[in-house]
Amino acid sequence: MLDIQFAKSKMENEEGMNHLWIQVHPEDPLQTSEIQIQLPEGMYRSKNLSGLVENDQGHIVVDAPYQDVIIEIFTQDALECGELTIVVSLLTAETTVH
């Protein structure tokens, strides 16, 4: 299971920045999992600030239970105002949770 929160409830549409806090609560704490983050066009992210490994697919490898992951989300150019969706998935050998 994932708990996801933003540091700020809204993000500026031009040169905006926010932090995404992801808490991982695995059903099987012995199983390695990966976090996949899909951003809308015009939004970008830094490498995770938690020091976890990111693989060739850009997934964050979670190799210990109950780890917190912090990601910086930002824009470089002006985006159209409105609601955008960020998809965060927890991938394991058996399941995918969105």
UniProtKB/TrEMBL annotation:
<protein>
    <submittedName>
        <fullName>Uncharacterized protein</fullName>
    </submittedName>
</protein>
